Amino acid sequence: MADSEFNKDLNIPDMPGVTAISTQNERQAIYAELERRAQGQRLTPAQRRIAQCLIENSNEIGFLSSLELAKLANVSQPSVTRFATSLGFGGYLEMRRHLRSGLSVTEARSETLANRYQAAAQAEMHNLEELGKMLADESLIDSFGEALASSRPLAVLGLRASSGLAAQFSYFASKVHPDVRLLTGGGSINEDLLEQVKAAGGKTLLAFMMPLYPRETVRALEFAREIGISVALVADAGLADYSRWSDRLLQVPINTSLVFDSYSAPAVIVSVLLDAMCNHMKNEAERRLDHLDHSSRKRKVFTG
Length: 304
Prior knowledge:
alpha/beta, Arc Repressor Mutant, subunit A
């Protein structure tokens, strides 16, 4: 699972001060641009090594020749050129110039930040801006909403780091959807539960897949598709190829600048998908919410 290891190498531990913040922001800026241009592509292992070297050597990116980058990544010089052209550049020099020019804004912004926690918050704001641009494609969100609303039951999967996102979606979805089945355990029990979902008429598995990815998650996605359940996948905006595990895919940016990743953008996606699902349930969602509100008031579930 080399793909799943890509994000964790971007952390810069124990480097206090403005210089460290600037370095981290440079890496994030290059990472964001590379993943944006690689969207929808399946990068080879050699191309992922090149991308990783560009990120790790952000300070010298304006001075590295294609041959020097090839040696760092342990690939051939033509591989570097092919990588640049696959991302839409005319060649390596154009890619180097473009990536370097995008760092000046990041460097200026970092000077106003006092510590790494402010830098992390700034990175999350940038992630939300990128998410806002992605949400311009309403048809993609609408297709997710339709698939989630029409699946009875609806399976929701999230293991380890992704379990919180899956639980959050399931908690609110169960207020409007008649049958939501949350899968947060590992091993073959997921296959048993997915078979039960299929036998009961379920058509869709909504899966959250944030790094690092457990083998059980991949196996569950593969098994769901084997038995005819469509996979709607929410994953990080990394350079891995997720298309082999999904029928619908949403890739959202996460912040990797602190010891543990943070998930502001994926949390927003949870609410977006809930709204899109409700749109396709029409009056049914409203009726169930009204009934739930009446019941909770009667039972005095909430204070105030």
